[in-house]
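Collaborator request, handled under Task 6.
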Amino acid sequence: MSRSEEQDEQEIVMRIQQQMRVLDDAYEPANIPSLATIEAQVKERRQMRRRANRIEMILFWIAGLFIISFGAFLLHSAPALYLGIQAISLCAAIVVAVSWSGRRRKETRHE
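Structure tokens returned to the collaborator:
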């Protein structure tokens, strides 16, 4: 670099720094929360997430117990209907799996 280019570059850097100072003076810094405030927020959100997870787990167990008890009731009261539902569910799962794998093959062929 020649001397004039270095001087031009230094002049540009000085102008940019001067303009940055003007911007810094024009705008007040945002309120930055303290470390204690951030830690308190993290703790509160963690507790809320734990509570939500606990509620979700309880609902999952209730739904699972309901489904199992319904299946047991259906097995004892109408075994033919229970076996029919099981067979239809198995066939539906196979159809979905085959159609899904067929779509994946088509997508990979195009790529």
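The cover message to the collaborator said: "The chain has a mean pLDDT of 88. The radius of gyration is 33 Å. Please let us know whether this matches your experimental observations."
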